[in-house]
Specification:
Shape: globular
Strand content: 25-35%
Largest sheet: 8 strands, mixed
Helix content: 25-40%
Structural class: alpha+beta
CATH class of the largest domain: Alpha Beta
Number of strands: 15
CATH superfamily of the largest domain: L-amino peptidase D-ALA esterase/amidase
Radius of gyration: 22 Å
CATH architecture of the largest domain: 4-Layer Sandwich
Distance between the termini: 38 Å
Number of helices: 11
């Protein structure tokens, strides 16, 4: 049986249908039997959904015990009524679980600017809080209950050792459209039984998000609701990780980053209307931040994305986007490779175009997984990011999204 978040010590959950979405699960609850160290990263959009505001406040002390998520309504741009609805969600779940209200985090996803169905969701919380379980199917229910335009559930699980103790970590995510660096209409929740200081967890989560969820793009739109939350309840009873020098720090960070990259890549692979998954890699850059900034600029270029959709080896668009990243850039030093994830072709060497078999490159670009590599020859740092092509299906889908 495939393991999921229910295999993390002390974690129970449930996913249910409340009626906000037609015939689909639309409410998810995740609960730790003990308060956990908690850290989160939230949207950078200036229009902030009510659940983001509530969760930011509740997680400020680095502790949380439960997460409740509704799908079908973003509770964004919903005014006072929406804020009251988000608070009502935390109150109802806290009351049902017998925990402090500020230990509850809340998230919402769906259409923006629609009246929030507080009554239906609160009734759903009260009805389903009693169903929390660690049965494996509950993990699947939760992963499916947070979806909107996604075509499949996004899950991950890993186990490893720290101090001779087995550590479990599971995660779920959602996202398909409005995906852009600095996060977008994307939710991700990870739970683990490792023991770690909450302040250190906050630093680690931010660094891991920068290498994963902040390195993906589908359509260049950053939403009002996105958040990444990590709960670490300590029930593995390892020696608590308090410092970057502690032996368990590097181990946990490695697996947390891998989990986030895995979930981020699943989001990209499910991009609305997308036909291609594109990995961007920059090597021999001055710094890691430099590499990530340039990748974001290239991966978000509509001209690059449409070229990949059309299987057009128009590498000039890639170089042009790199040059627009606002970074020092010596074009005459760079090498550029394009192709599939299995085979790339060097199209530019030291800033000089090479003789190309265009038909062969077009054949490589027919693959569903593509790769673009830029070697800057300007340092030793590197970075990776992931994106999609831009298709006619995307335009058609989003032209009628709210209907």
């Amino acid at each position: 049986m495939i393991k999921n978040i229910t295999n993390v010590r002390g974690i129970t959950c449930w996913g249910a249908h409340t009626g906000v979405k037609s015939m689909k699960r639309d409410l998810a609850i995740i609960f730790s039997k003990v308060p956990a160290s908690a850290a989160a990263v939230f949207t950078q959009n200036k229009v902030v959904a009510a659940p983001v505001t509530v969760s930011r406040n509740n997680i400020a002390d680095g502790k949380a015990q439960a997460i409740v998520i509704n799908a079908g309504n973003a509770n964004a741009a919903s005014g006072k009524q929406g804020m009251e609805g988000a608070i009502a969600m935390t109150h109802a779940l806290a009351e049902e679980l017998g925990i402090a209200e500020d230990l509850v985090l809340v998230a919402s996803t769906g259409i923006i600017g629609v009246k929030f169905p507080t009554t239906e969701i609160v009734e759903g919380i009260r009805e389903n809080a009693k169903n929390l379980t660690n049965r494996s199917n509950a993990g699947s229910f939760v992963a499916n209950a947070i979806l909107t335009t996604d075509t499949f559930a996004k899950e991950g699980f890993v186990e490893f050792e720290v101090d001779g103790r087995e550590i479990n970590m599971g995660g779920i995510a959602k996202g398909s459209g409005m995906i852009h660096p600095n996060m977008a209409t994307m939710l991700a929740f990870m739970v683990t039984d490792i023991a770690i200081d909450p302040k250190l967890l906050k630093i680690m989560v931010k660094e891991a998000v920068d290498k994963s969820f902040n390195m993906i793009t589908v359509d260049g739109d950053t939403s009002t609701n996105d958040m990444v939350i990590v709960l670490a309840n300590g029930l593995a009873h390892n020696d608590i990780i308090k410092s970057k020098k502690d032996k368990g720090y590097a181990i946990f960070k490695k697996y947390l980053e891998e989990m986030m990259v895995h979930l981020a890549q699943l989001i990209v692979s499910d991009g609305e209307g997308a036909s291609k998954f594109i990995e961007y890699e920059i090597v021999n850059a001055p710094t890691e931040d430099y590499a990530r900034t340039m990748i974001r600029k290239i991966s978000d270029s509509a001209l690059v994305k449409t070229a990949m959709f059309g299987r057009d080896p128009n590498w000039g668009r890639i170089i042009s986007a790199a040059g627009n990243a606002g970074l020092p850039f010596d074009y005459e030093k760079i090498d550029l490779y394009i192709g599939s994830d299995k085979k790339t072709v060097k199209v530019l060497e030291q800033g000089t175009p090479l003789e190309l078999d265009t038909n062969y490159i077009k054949k490589l670009l027919k693959e569903s997984h593509l790769k673009i590599v830029l070697d800057l020859h300007s340092g030793k740092a590197k970075g990776k990011g992931w994106g999609t092509d831009l298709t006619t299906d995307y335009v058609l889908f989003n032209s009628v999204y709210s209907t």
